Every structure is written in structure tokens, then in C-alpha cells.
Fold this sequence. Notes:
Blueprint: E1 11-16, E2 20-25, E3 46-57, H1 63-69, E4 75-81, E5 88-94, H2 97-107, E6 111-112, E7 115-116, E8 118-124, H3 179-190, H4 194-198, E9 205-213, E10 219-224, H5 227-243, E11 260-266, E12 272-283, E13 286-291, E14 296-301, E15 306-307, E16 321-325, E17 339-347, E18 355-359
Parallel strand pairs: 16-18
Antiparallel strand pairs: 1-2, 3-5, 3-8, 4-5, 6-7, 9-10, 9-17, 10-16, 11-12, 11-15, 12-13, 13-14, 17-18
Amino acid sequence: MLKLGKTPEICFQVHVGSRHTTEWSNSKTRKKLVKANPPRHPGPFMKEESKVYVGNLPPDIKEEEIARLFKDFGLKSVKKFQGSASKSFAVVDLATPEAVQLAIHQLNGNAVNKRQILVSVWEDRRRPLKSSSMEMPELEPVPFEELGLKHALAPKFRPQTPPPLQPTVQYAVPLEMRSSFLLHMLKDCFQDVAWLNTVPQVHGEVGLLVTDALPQTPYFWAIHLTEEHHQSMLKLFTALAKVESQVPFLAKQDVQRGTRCMAECILGNEGGAWNRCWVLEKFEDQAVVFFVDYGRSATVPLNSLRKLDSNEFWKIHPLAQPFVLQEECFLPQVAIRQVLEGRVAGLSQMEPHIVKFVLKAD
């Protein structure tokens, strides 16, 4: 069970500009997690990293409507297929693997004509991967007498066939949590990568303020609730609030991959807050940015980005850091800005800077 809001006296309130207030506090709201289901079609398949699978679509939906859902992710093509009389699915080709990850992050679980759609990486099951190893053929059983042994030596039990191994679910590390991505971001924004080395230092019993999570996976971003991080939050958000309306907007031609700037990060139904960000991609009049203090990506209009190139705003390392639940995964409806209680259980084997987290038992 996901335990929320039992860390005492945790309440941060920061005024960001004249319109938005970001208040993070412990809550009594409880959210459930769900065990991951094993894959329905075990076995290796060829993954096409620029395509997404869109499932549980209404049967009468048109390809033009599907295209509108993915227009902000570098849409290249849409192909709809009729799965049954009651629903259909589609394969959508996007510009880059990064756009695929962002589309999954933002659209998976959304409602389309009162149906909750499934958005995931497309696996082309018509082209199985070639295997370098060959399986041994089935062998016919040989009667014990034909082995030339006496009946007295015959075993008193029949060898048992070991039960088949249960398939396990392997989750790919999200793009924004990979060291290859974080190293580029940290070097462009902060001119050093020291923060990445300090991430694994979290240990023991901890309280985590969730800033973003990937539904139906165990991965999430959170701020480790310490006095040091509290002071950093106050200092950073106060500085951003002072310059929000003063720094100029960036010209379209000045926005490129790797540009560090400031944009408004929408935090669910509770409004938004201006935050430091780093430009991932640029599509016509839109930009895909990574909010470094929340660990989340978003597509925003180019004309909404403000200049934030002064080094004084980049002295504080990112507030949020990557975590992975050890045993559970998040539901599509994720409670952002809630406090999780639990303990650190080591580091991820796939990416050693990702901290494994065990939720506190009831």
C-alpha cells in the first residue's frame, strides 16, 4: 500500500510570482499501488523505438482524431486497426525515441470518448528477433528395462519435471533517469556533474515528496525531505519569483536543444509554478522541456519560455532525484506532491544513481 502523509510537521509554502502558490504538505490521502502483471505474450520481439501502440480506442474513432492526440510529439504517421467490434487500436510513428517516451508519459491512461487509452512502446510481433542459441529437441522417454539395469535398481520415484519459470516484468529505465541523459543536462545547466554522485547517498528511513511518477511503472521523482533541501527550495523559488515578470521571453531562434531557461510547470489541478528547465527538442512552435527541479518533461509553447542564463540561478543542484519502488508500480492516477514514507533498499542495478525505495508497511 502507498502510505502518504505521516511525516510530522512537513509543510513547505513558497510563493512563486503573484498568481501561483506552491504548497507541499503531508496529507491523509491514500493511494493504492498495483502489482505488475506478467506480459501476456512472453518472448522476444523487435521493438521499433519511434513507434507507439495506442490501445482500447473506440471502434469509430478516426485516424485524424488520433493524430490530434499526438500532434505535439513530432507526429509522422498514424495507422488504425480494428481489433474487435467494440474497440480498436493504432500504431503511431513519432519523430524520435525521446518523443515516444514523452507521449507515453503524458497520454497513457488519458480518457478518449470515455475510454481510458493505453499508450506504450510498439512491439512488432510479426518480426521475431533472431536467437543465436538453438533449443534442444524433445527426447522420447526410454523404458528403464532397455537401459540394461535390474528392476531392483529401478528408482522408487519418478523424476518430477520442474515447474516452468514464471515470467517477470522488466521495466526499461525512463529516458529522463538514464545517466547518459542526466550527464548532458547537468553539464549544460550546471557545468558539473557532482549532483549525480551525491544521489546514492540517501539512506535509512526517509520521507519523499513525489514530484512526478510514471504510471504503471515503479519509477518516480521525489525530493528527499531534509532541512537542507527545505532551505534550498525556499532560496531557489524565492529567487525565481522575483524575476518571473522581469526576465524577457526568448526569441524563437534562440531556443535550441540544450538551452537553459525558465517556464511554467503545471502541477495538476492546483495551478503551476515557474521553474528552471532545459530544452530537449523543438517542434515548430512547441518545445519539449525538462523541469530540472521536478524531474518531469512537458511540451510548452516556444513563446512561453523566459531567459534564465545567469549562473546565479544555477548554483543550487536539482531538488528532485530519481527513485524506483522495489515491489510495486504506480496506478495511472498518480498522487503528485504527496509524501511517501519508507526506507532505502540499495541502488538499482541498471542505473546505480537510481535509489530503490520500499514503502512503509501498514
